[in-house]
Amino acid sequence: METLSQLLGLLTAVLLFPLVIWVPGWLLARSCNVLDFARLPATSRLALPLLLSMALSPVVVYLTARTLGLQAVWAVYGVLWLLALTHLARNWRACGTQVNLFFRDHRAGCLILLAWTLGSALSVIDIVLPNDLWRNLNTMDSTAHVAFTDSITRTGVPPTNPFAFPGEPIRLFYYYYWYLICSLVDQLGGGLVNARAAVQAGSIYIGYALAGLVIVFCDILRGRTGFPGQPQRNATLGWLLLAVTGVDIIPWTFLHLIHRFFHLGPGGGLSLEHWNEQVTAWMGAVVMSPHHPAGMVMGFTAVLLLIRLCDGGLTGWRRLIHVGLIGVAMSSAAGVSLYVTLALGLGLGLWSVWMLFTGRRTVVFALVVAGVLALALYLPFALELRASARITEIPLKLTVRAFEITDYWLPSIVKVLKQWPTSRYVLRLVFLPLNYLLEFGYFLVAALLYWRWRRQQKQSLETVEVLLLSIAVGSFLVCTFLASTFLWNDLGWRAFLVGQFVLLLWAIPVTGWLLEKADGIRAWRRVLLFLLITGLTGTAVEMVNFRLRTDGLSGPQSVAAYEAYQWIRTHTPQDTIVASNPDAAVDYFSSLYGNRQMVCGGRVYGIHFAVGEAGKKTLDQTLRFFQGDYDEAGRLEFLQRHHVGIIVVLEADPIWRDKSSWVWSQTPAYANASARVFQR
Predict the structure, then answer these.
(1) 532 occurs within a structural domain
(2) DSSP state at residue 37
(3) Which pLDDT tens digit goes with each residue over 57-99?
(4) Closest CA relative to residue 206, chosen from 287, 294, 333, 117
(5) Quick check: is 656 in a domain?
(6) Distance separating alpha carbons of residues 268 and 393, to the nearest angstrom
C-alpha cells in the first residue's frame, strides 16, 4: 500500500510538471517565433517549449521569489496559465488535431517516453515490505536533493540548510535552482505530492529534455555538411545512444572478481561508476545527479540559440530576443550546475577566439552581450552563496585526471613508484588514452571515425562544426586538468556531460553508417558492435544496481525508521526541529520521509554544505547526546540550545541499549519495535 501511495504521488507530480516547465516556453516560442518555431516539425514544436522553459524558469523564478516572494511567482504563473487556457479555448479543434497527428505519426517515440516514465518510476520508488525497505542505490544523492526541495517549500527563498541547525537557521550553500522548480511542483501538488515525488518526477522530465535536445539539434543541424542523414532517423538514433555508456562493465567486473576470489584491491563498488574517476552514463547521471544534466540542457539550449544567430537572418527585436535568451539560459545553467557551465563557458571562449580571427565579430559581440546579461542575472545568487559560504580554501586545483590503474594498481605492483610522488601524474598522462577509451567506449571510437570521414570531405569546417568542437575541447580540458576539492571531484565528474553530448552528436551519423554497413567503417564494424553492445549492457547492469543495491540501514530496522519518520511528517508542524543520531555518513530517513529541519544530518551532510566549524561542533554535541554522555541538565541544555521539538532514537543507537537511560524512563509520543519518538 505504501509503495502504491509513493507511485501515485510520483505520477501526480509528473502530470503537474508541464504547468511549470512547459507552458512558459510554449507561450514564448509561439509569440516570439524562437528558433523559427512555426516552421519546426511537430516533434520539435513539442520539445522546444520544454527546453526554453528549463532555460528561462529557474532564474526568473529565483529573482521573483527573492525580491517579491513566492506569492508573486504564483501570480506570474497564474497569468501564464490563463493565457494558455485562452489560446486552447480559441483553438481547441486545431490543437486536438495536432495532438492526434502527433500520436499517430510518432508512436515509437511515444512508447519510448512511456517506457522511460514507467521504468524510472519503478526504479526510484521504495518497495516497502513487512520486514524490509528496498531503497534505490541513489538515496545518498537524492537525500540531499529532497532535503533542499523540502527546505525551499518550508522556508522559502533563500532556503535554510536542512542538515545543520547549530542553534539558529543558516542559509543553504548549494546551487539549488533546479530544486526551486521541484519545490513549485511540491507546493502545487498539495497533499498528493511531497518533495521526494517532485524530485523524482523532475528526473523523469530531465530525461524528456535530453530526448528533446537531441530532436531539436537534429532539426537545426539538418542539411549541413557535418551532419548527414534525415532528422527523424537521426533523432531516433540519438535517443537510443542515450542508453549507451562506456566499457566500464569490463574493469568493474574484473575488480569485483579479483577482490572476491583473490582478496586483491578495493573491488568495483556498488555502482559501475565507482571503479574509477566518473564519466557518468546518461541514464545514471539523470537518476543520480539530475541538476547537472539539467544544467547541460540549459547550456545547450543557449548553444541552439547561438547557432540561430550564426545562421543570420535575425534582425531587430527578434535578434535581441535570441541574444537575451542566451544570457538567461546561461544564467539559469550557472545556478543549476556551475561545474557544467564552467566547461561550456571555456568552450564558448575558445570558439569566440576563433571567430575573432576569422572576422565574425558581430556574433562574438552578441555573445559578449549575452554573457554580460548572464552575469548580471547571476550576481544576486552569487552574492547569496558568498554570504552563505563558511569556507576559505580555493575549491579548485590543477591536476591530471585520476585513473585506477596508475593510482592504485601500478604502485601496488611496482613499489618504487610510491617513493616518486610525481610519477602518478606522469603515468596518468601516459595512460590517459586508455582511461578515456574505457570511460567513453563507443563514443570515443565513433568520434575518431566521424572526424576521419569529415577530413575526407576536403571541405572547410562550418561555423557550427567549430562551435561544437570548441565546446568538446573545453570540456575535456576542464575535466582532465582541473578538479574540485569540495569533498568530491564533482567538476571532473559532471562537467564532462558537455563533451559527452557533443560526442553523442558525432556518434549519430557513425551509428547510421554502422546500421547501413557502409564501406567507410567496414574495418571497424566488429569493434563498434562490441563497444555498442558493451555500452548497452553496462547501462542495463547499472540500472539493475540502482534498483537492487543500497547502503545504510536495512531489514526490519529500516521499516521501523521509515514508519517513525512518516509519523513525524504527519503529526508535527513543518517548523519542527528533529534530533537524531548523526553517527552515519548520511541520515537517509529524516530527509526522505520526515521532511523536517535536522539538528545534524550525518557525518557528511551535517558539515558538508559550507557549515564550517559550527557544523562540526554541532555534530560532536549531537553524537554525545545519543551516546548518553550528558546528564539530565546537559540534555536539557542541548535540547534548548538547538530548539529541538522531536527526538528520534533507533535500535542501532548506543543509548537504546542502556535500559537505565531516559529512553526507557520517558513515555514516547510514538514507538515501534525498533524506534522511539519523543516530542517536547
Answers:
(1) no
(2) G
(3) 999 999 999 999 999 999 999 999 999 999 888 877 777 777 7
(4) 294
(5) yes
(6) 31
**Is residue 377 in some structural domain?**
no
Residues in the chain, how many? 680
Contact between residue 272 and residue 249 where contact means Cβ atoms under 8 Å apart? yes
pLDDT tens track for 368-391: 999 999 999 999 999 998 888 766
Count of domains forming the chain: 2
User: Is-contact 507 515, C-beta < 8 A?
Assistant: no
| Residue-wise pLDDT tens digits, 177-215 | 999 999 999 999 988 999 999 999 999 999 999 999 999
Rounded Cα gap, residues 69 and 663, in angstroms: 42
Residues facing residue 671 across a β-bridge: 676
Q: How many angstroms separate the most distant Cα atoms in the chain?
A: 85
d(CA 162, CA 609): 10
Scanning 525-593, the segments in alpha helix (DSSP H) are: 525-548, 556-571, 588-589
What DSSP state is assigned to residue 593?
I
Contact 644, 579 (CB under 8 A): yes
- Looking up cell 509561439 gives 30
Half-sphere exposure of 203 (CA within 13 A, CB side): 30
Beta carbons of 119 and 195 less than 8 angstroms apart: no
**Is residue 164 within 8 Å of residue 601, measured between CB atoms?**
yes
CB-based burial, 309-344: b 16+ in 10 Å, e otherwise? bbeeebeeeeeebbbebbbbbbbbbbbbbbbbbbbb
Between the CA atoms of 597, 603, 607 and 613, what dihedral angle is there, to the nearest 10 degrees?
A: 120
CA 292, 293, 298, 299 torsion-angle sign: positive
Query: Which range marks the domain in which residue 63 is found?
Result: 2-131+155-202
Rg from Cα positions in the chain: 26
CA dist., res. 207 & res. 211, Å (int): 6
Residue 641 lies in a domain: yes
H-type helices in 389-441, by residue range? Answer: 404, 410-413, 423-430, 432-440
Crossing angle (nearest 10°) for helices 316-336 and 361-388: 30
Amino acid at 42: A
pTM of the model: 0.94
Please tell me the distance from the alpha carbon of residue 344 to that of residue 551, in angstroms, as a whole number. Answer: 34
Contact 178, 148 (CB under 8 A): no
Whole-angstrom distance, CA of residue 553 vs CA of residue 559? 9
